[in-house]
Amino acid sequence: MAQPPDPQTVPRGRHAPPLEVRLSVQRRRLFEAAAAVFARVGYAEASAEAISREAGMSKATFYEHFANKEECILALFDEAATEVTRALVNAPGDDARSYEDRVRGGIHAFLGILAAYPDSTQTLLVEIIGAGPRAAERRDAILDLFADGLLRDNARMAVKFGNPRFASKDDAFAIIGAIVELVSRQLRTGVPARLADLEPVILRLITGLLVAPR
What we know:
- This protein has a domain at 69-211: Tetracycline Repressor, domain 2.
- The protein is elongated.
- 68% of the residues lie in helices and 2% in strands.
- Helix 4 (69-89) crosses helix 6 (118-125) and helix 7 (133-161) crosses helix 8.
- The termini are far apart.
- The protein is mainly α and 214 residues long.
- A two-stranded antiparallel ribbon has the order 1-2.
């Protein structure tokens, strides 16, 4: 996900870093700026000019990285989705004493990274919806990926803890969809007051759709 703004600039002249480093720094700054602009005014009202201005760069630099704002939000979406996935994979959980502990730890990690990067989260879950068919496909694909991960983890933990299983992947996808809507509402309306307040709600949601072993 886009990192917090870094006031440092890239050195120029003979002390300048290699081209790939400069391009990487530029792209990161553009991601930060794009996330801020999309969150502030929405995708429809955002523009390459506004994103460039937010990043302190020229429009020409923006177009060196992205063909248009659609390409920018798609790239930002992919970056944010990758970071969320990495955080979930690396979340502590191997020392969980029960499946509920495991689920609680995953929820905490997920909401924690979303809360740490609110602008990118707004893009990942809210603004991407209005960015066209390609964006919708990306969003559907990442939700499907998260559902797969939830289903696999549930099956793996069943071997370890004997916990109930989901009846189908549709159950897992329903949970992911509900989580996205809960988080989206919090981002849009401030209800509940903090993303962390959703932890017990999501825990009940997940455990409520589990099917007892037969």
